[in-house]
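Data availability (excerpt). All sequences and predicted C-alpha cell strings are deposited with the supplementary files. A representative entry, Formin-binding protein 1-like, is shown inline so that the format can be inspected without opening the archive.
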Amino acid sequence: MSWGTELWDQFDNLDKHTQWGIDFLERYAKFVKERIEIEQNYAKQLRNLVKKYCPKRSSKDEEPRFTSCIAFFNILNELNDYAGQREVVAEEMGHRVYGELMRYSHDLKTERKMHLQEGRKAQQYLDMCWKQMDNSKKKFERECREAEKAQQSYERLDNDTNATKADVEKAKQQLNLRTHMADENKNEYAAQLQNFNGEQHKHFYIVIPQIYKHLQEMDERRTIKLSECYRGFADSERKVVPIISKCLEGMIHAAKSVDERRDSQMVVDSFKSGFEPPGDFPFEDYSQHIYRTVSDGTISASKQDSGKIDAKTTVGKAKGKLWLFGKKPKPQSPPLTPTSLFTSSTPNGSQFLTFSIEPVHYCMSEIKTGKPRIPSFRSLKRGGPALEDFSHLPPEQRRKKLQQRIDELNRELQKESDQKDALNKMKDVYEKNPQMGDPCSLQPKLAETMNNIDRLRMEIHKNEAWLSEVEGKTGGRGDRRHSSDINHLVTQGRESPEGSYTDDANQEVRGPPQQHNHPNEFDDEFEDDDPLPAIGHCKAIYPFDGHNEGTLAMKEGEVLYIIEEDKGDGWTRARRQNGEEGYVPTSYIDVTLEKNSKGS
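C-alpha cell line:
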C-alpha cells in the first residue's frame, strides 16, 4: 500500500492530513508539558507540606523522643523523598518526551514543507507542458481552417471562367502557403503532445509517487515517534516505582516502629520529679474535749504535765530532724495552744497526750503547689548561678539534665585531648624535621587547647559535684520512707512541708508545723559550714586569670593554701589569706604538702 499509487490525485488531502499530524504532535507535547507542571507543583506542595510539619530543631530539648513522633517524622522524610521522585518524573518527562517532541515537530515541519514544495513544482511543470501542448493544438487547428479556406478560394477561382490566370495563380500560391503552415503546426502539435504525454506519465508514475512516498514515510515516522513518546511517558513513571515503593515501605516500617510502652516510659522519665507522694492525713479528734473529766485539778495537772512533755518532746525530736539545707534550725518552742496540744482520757481513766499535725488546708495547699524544692545554698555560696545547676527542676529531672551535660562535656574533653595529642605529635615532627615547620608556631594553639581542657575539666568537676548532691538526696529520700502509724495519728512518709526527712520513725515530730519564719536559719547554715583545713601550700609558677566560674585568679609567685588535692582532673582547690577559695590548674603551681598540718 503506497500513497503514490493509491492517492495519486489527493495532493490537497495529503497536505491537510500531514498538517493535522503535526498539530496532533504539538497537542500531545502540550499535554506532556501540562503534566510536567502538575508533577512539579505536586512535588513543590509536598515539600512545603513536609517543611511545615517538620520540627524546627533550634535546640536539642525540642528533638522528638516519643516513638510516635519519631515515626511521624520518618514518614515526613519518606514523603520528602517521594516528592523528590515526583520531581525526577517531571525532569525525565521534560527531557525524554517533551523536549524530544518539540525538536521532532520542528524537523517535521521543515521536511513536510520541502516535500510539498516539490509536489507543487512538479504539478506546475506538468501544467506548463499541458499549456504548450494546448497552444500548439489551437494553432494547428487555426492553420488548418485557414488552409481549408484557401483551398475553397482556389477552387472557386479555378472554376470561374471570368477569373484571370493571375488571380488563379495567386490563389494557388496562397493555398500552398496555408497548407505548408498547417503541416508545420501539425508537426509542432504532435511533438508537444508527445512531450506532454511523457511528462504526464513521468509526473503521475515517478515524481508524484516519490513525493507521496516521502510524505508517507514522514507521517509514519511521526506515528512511531508518538509511540516512543507514549512509552517514554510511561517509563518515566515506571522507573521511580521501585523507589516510591521503598518510600511506602519506609512509611509502613515507621508505623510498625511505634511502641506505646516505650512512649509511656518516656513520659515517666520526662516528668518524674523524684519526690515521694504525700502521706495519709491524720485523724483529728475534736470530740475529745467532750470526754474530759470534770475534775479541775486533773485537768490543770494534765495541762502542766502536757506542757512539760511537749517542750521536751518538741526540742528533743527536732534535734534528729533533717532539714532542707542539711542543718537543723535553731529549736524554738512555739507557744502551746489548744489546737496543738490537749489531753484525752481513756475509758479506764488514764490520760494521754495527743499532738496535732498541720491543718488540712495547709497540706492541701502544699500538694497543689508542689514546687521543686530549693537545693542547698552551698552552690549559691560558691558562686554557682541559680539555673546553671538546674536547681529549678525536680530531683529526677535535674539528675538527667546534669548527666546529659556531663556526657557532652566528656565528649568535648575527648576531642580536645585528641587535638592536643595531635598537636604534640606534630610538634615532635617539627622538632625532628625543622624544614617541615616551626614548632613554636604550634605553641599558641597548644596553649588554647590546654585552656579548653582545663575549663572542661573544671566544668565536669562542678557538674559531677552537683550530680553527687542530687543522687545523695534522692537516694536518702528513697530509703527514709516508712509506713503509716497503726493509729493513723502520723502521716505516711515523714516529709515535712519544707521537704525534710528524719532518720528515725520514733523521732518524728508530732507537734504542729513551724509556720513562723526563722530569720537566722540561713545564717546558721553558712556559719556552721566550717572552712576546710589547709593540707599544704603552693606557689604560682604562671599567672592565671580565673575568669571561669569557680576558679581562683592568681599572680606569678603568689603563695596559696592547699585545702584539697588534685583528684585527677587537673585542678587543685586553694585558698588565699583573706579566705577566698577556688580551683587553680595543678600544672600552674608548685605544690608542697605538709604532714599532719592543721588548718590555720
